[in-house]
Each structure stands twice: as C-alpha cells, then as structure tokens.
Write a structure and sequence with these properties.
The chain contains 16 helices and 13 strands. The protein is about 45% helix and about 15% strand. Helix 10 runs parallel beside helix 11. The protein has helices at about 10-25, 35-45, 60-70, 90-95, 110-125, 150-160, 180, 190-195, 205-210, 235-245, 260-270, 280-295, 320-330, 340-350, 355, 360-380, and strands at about 5-10, 30, 50-55, 80-85, 100-105, 135-140, 165-170, 210, 220, 250-260, 275-280, 305-310, 330-335. The strands form 2 sheets. An 8-stranded mixed sheet has the order 8-9-7-10-6-11-12-13, sandwiched between helices. It has 2 domains: about 5-125, Rossmann fold (3-Layer(aba) Sandwich); about 135-380, P-loop containing nucleotide triphosphate hydrolases (Rossmann fold). By secondary structure, it is an alpha/beta fold. Bound molecules: adenosine-5'-triphosphate and magnesium ion.
Length: about 375
C-alpha cells in the first residue's frame, strides 16, 4: 500500500506542484490549505507523513506542529516543515515544535523526494508493532470458599510459566488470601492504589505497589487485615485499576471474590473472559444458575463466561457432570480434582502449585485451563487457533 502524505500549504500552486511530484513517486496525496484543516485531516486521513508550510494565515505551521504532537492520535506522524524561510532560528523553532525534518522553498524535486523517503523509512523502521490488546481474566466464586483464589493464582502462574507477562490482582480487600499464598502477607498494594483519586491511578503508581514473586509473576495484592475491607473507594478507581493493569501485562487475572457486589458487577463487565468457579452440589448449582443469568446480561452469548468446577471435597456423592451442564445450559470448561495436600504444601512454600508441583493432577488441569483461556484470546484477536 502506498504511503499517504498530507501536504499543508495556503498557496494552491505550491500544493499542486508538490502534490504532483509526490504522486509521480508513487505516494498517495491528500491536501489541506489551512492549519485547522490540516489538524482535521491529520486525524481523519491517518497520513504516514505530513509536509507542513510554516506561514499560513489562520495558524502557523509551528502551532499546527505543536498541536499534532499534543494529540495522542497524531503524535507519531512524522512532519517535514516546508517554508520559504531559510534562517537558522526558524529551523530551530520547527524542531522545537516537534518537526522531524526541514525543507526550504523552492526545493528541487529530487531533494523533496529523498527527504520524504528518508523520513518515512526512519519512522517505519522505528515503528513499534501495535501492542496486542492484553487480556483481562476475571475469576468469580459462586459463593465463598469454593476455590476461586486458588484458580486465579494458579491460572496466572501457568501464564507466567509460559513466559507471558502475567499479573494477578486481588480485589478482595481485607480478605486477600493471594498475598498469603505468594509469601507477601503484609502487602496492601491494592488498597494503597484504590485510596488515590482515579486520575492519579497510572502505570507508574501500580508499578510501585506491585510485588514480584520469585517465579516472575507480578501481583497487586490485598491483605487479610480485616480493617482493609472498610476502605471506601469510588467504582471509577477500581475500573481504572483494571484498565491500567491490562496495559502492563499480557495476561492479567483478577480475583473478584464470591458472588456479585457493586464493584465486581462493574469489573466483570470489563473482563474479556470470566471464570465462574462452582462446586458440584445442589446449593452451588442453584446459585450458579442465578449468577450466570446476571453475568450473561453483559455481552450475551459472547462465550466469555466459563464454568470451572472445583471438587474441593472428595466425595462419592456429588451432582453428576451432565446434570451440572444441563442445569447451566453450557459445557464445563474445566473440572479440577481434589488436592488438599498439594495445595497445602504449595501455600506453605508460598509457590503456586502449578510451579511447585507441576506433576500433580490438579496442576495439569489448571495449566490446561490456562491454555484454553489463552487460545480463546488469540482466536478473539484474529490469530488462527493453535
Ligand atoms: N481442588 C481443591 N482441592 C482441595 N482443596 C482445595 C481445592 N481448591 C481449593 N481448595 C482449598 O479450599 C480452601 C478455599 O480455597 P480458596 O481460598 O481458593 O477459595 P475462595 O473461593 O477464594 O475462598 P474465599 O471466598 O474465602 O475467597 C483453601 O484452603 C484451598 O486450599
Ligand atoms: Mg478467595
């Protein structure tokens, strides 16, 4: 595809002349004859390069340049300032305003072509690949104690084993058991962040409040100090934490805790995928049916909600799988075996089971669940399924 160049000049003859020269070199050309029009076209036409005249009646080229640089949508577009002025001061002013190169009028066609080519190749080789939209995965327990945190932690750890840049975040203020399981029982990073006004919640702040586990897994934690659960924070703050964290890792797993609250109901809407953790018994099943209905109202039928059954209690009496599937109207994404001993050991060593006990059945089940979630993200992003 030909590179698109936006030429900005109030002099129509000059516009035509430069336009023709560039077209002859195979570029696609768009024109603007005033500063304001240039700003509009820079956003609507997404040019690869802008050639900008300095002296224009409505707004000079320096100002246009500054405004292009101040706008995140146009910040990265290379700019060549084009003017009759030849004074060094003007060149300096152009560079200070953010121009990449400078050309004086009248310009030889060959010089114009070579400058354009240079600036374009410089910026294309520097161009970073589009960041792939990182995934936010939420884990909700149908009720307390069903194993949601264990799933959140180990799914995140499984991602970090696959050298994803994984983050686990704990929204259970005052009942944060993730910190205990990772060996950071005193970490109150999440509460510290949520105490700030939403406008101050940025990556740099989160970076400072996160801890890094020896496995490389990063975590934004809540403590188990009951006092922490009294913290009042605006929903906007929680939502900003989710939005910011997802720019900081490729896979971020959120422990949203049991059931729905005002906070989790807001946050669940921002998750690409949701793991709903249930137990195979009639009470859990009835609650799951209801919760599922609530969750389904966001993006109905999108396939983003997955049922994970955790068999915490080894028992011969449990609701059979096909009944669970039938009652919930969907297939089970994962069935996690009972693993008291392994999970006890893992918690004591403060290393997630998928890492400390890779051969345990429970570990391979959770690793497979993580792979499944990750494959679904790739399919959603348009990559062929592995
Ligand atoms: N597959 C399993 N087999 C046996 N025990 C398990 C299993 N999964 C979790 N547990 C145990 O059950 C207890 C509760 O697990 P976990 O903390 O993950 O649940 P939760 O849903 O996050 O609880 P809460 O509602 O308190 O946040 C823990 O002691 C954990 O080790
Ligand atoms: Mg928990």
């Amino acid at each position: 595809m030909a590179d698109k160049i936006l030429i900005v000049d109030d002099d129509l003859d000059s516009l035509k002349l430069i336009g023709l020269m560039l077209q002859r070199h195979g570029y696609e050309v768009v024109a603007a004859n005033a500063g304001t029009q240039a700003l509009a076209k820079a956003t609507s036409e997404h040019p690869n390069l802008i050639i900008l005249d300095v002296m224009m009646p409505d707004m000079d080229g320096y100002e246009v340049c500054r405004r292009l640089r101040a706008n995140p949508d146009t910040r990265g577009i290379p700019i060549i300032m084009f003017t009759a002025k030849t004074l060094v001061d003007d060149k300096v002013a152009g560079f200070e305003a953010g121009a990449d190169d400078y050309l004086t009028k009248p310009t030889h066609p060959a010089e114009l072509a070579s400058r354009v080519k240079n600036v374009l190749s410089r910026t294309t080789t520097q161009k970073k690949p589009e960041p792939t939209r990182a995934a936010a995965i939420g884990v909700i327990g149908v009720k307390g104690g069903v194993g949601a945190t264990t799933i959140a932690l180990n799914v995140a750890a499984a991602f970090s084993l696959k050298s994803e840049s994984a983050i686990v975040a704990d929204f259970r203020l005052g009942s944060g058991s993730l910190g205990l399981q990772l060996g950071f029982p005193q970490s109150t990073g999440m509460a510290n962040v949520l105490s700030k006004p939403p406008t101050e919640i940025r990556a740099s702040l989160l970076e400072g409040e996160m801890v890094t586990h020896q496995s490389g897994l990063r975590a934004l934690l809540s403590s188990a100090h009951s006092k922490e659960s009294l913290l009042n924070y605006p929903l906007e703050a929680a939502s900003t934490v989710v939005k910011t964290l997802r720019t900081m890792g490729t896979m971020t797993v959120f422990d949203l805790g049991p059931g729905l609250s005002t906070t989790t109901n807001r946050l669940q809407k921002e998750m690409d995928q949701l793991l709903l953790v249930i137990e195979p018994n009639p009470v859990s099943l009835a609650m799951a049916k209801d919760l599922l209905q609530e969750l389904e109202q966001t993006n109905p039928g999108s396939g983003r909600i997955h049922i994970v059954v955790v068999n915490r209690v080894q028992s011969s009496v449990q609701t059979p799988w096909h009944e669970v599937e039938q009652a919930l109207g969907r297939e089970l994404r994962a069935i996690i075996a009972s693993a008291h001993d392994q999970l006890f050991q893992a918690a004591r060593a403060a290393v997630p089971a998928v890492i400390s006990q890779p051969n345990a059945i429970v570990s391979s089940q959770i690793v497979k669940l993580a792979e499944d979630v990750s494959a679904r993200m790739k399919v959603a992003a348009g990559e062929p399924r592995p």
